Amino acid sequence: MKRKMIRNLSLALIALVGVFSLVFSFEGRTNAASLTSNPDQDLKVDTVDGIKYAPGKHKKIVGMVVEATDQGEKVHGFSTPEKYEAYHQKVTERLSSQSIGIMARPTYLYEHTSGHGYGRSLIAYPGTQVTSLSTAWDNRISAVSVAPGSWIRLYQNRYYGGRYLTLVGYPNKYFTTNLTSWGMSGTTSWNDQVSSYRVR
Q1: Is the pTM of this model over 0.90?
Q2: Which of 194, 193, 191, 173 is closest to 181 using CA atoms?
């Protein structure tokens, strides 16, 4: 009788372990699928190299510029560093002419998105260049408030390597955005991806 009871308990335990392993294995496959699905479909890009964005056509986007405007954000993607730099130069010249007389205000980088409270923050004044974030901040930035008349360029890797995202502020007010809003080709978003940055 005891032996039969022990055997039944053992079988029940084995069945329970089997169910758990199936559930967790399915969940793991689902998570893996969501991470490897085509992220380019989620990119909020208006144009790539000046042409209307088409996911099937524009597969390589190395850099993005998000410009805050009174009509909403304009998002420009670029397929080469050279095209990105040429556009960025135009934006910088325009901001320089608009920003005369504006006191330099800091840009803020936050650990969390606004939906969960901003948490800790880094303060970066125009001219700040960080080639390598500390261990406490590397791949931890989730939201940014760009100072009026400023821009910040975020890099995926240390020493300004990998993909990059430039956030261009309004001329006269802060532009605050969650990095979860901006897709990075090859990953789900820019959230927790930043390892170096420059502010101007």
Answers
A1: no
A2: 191
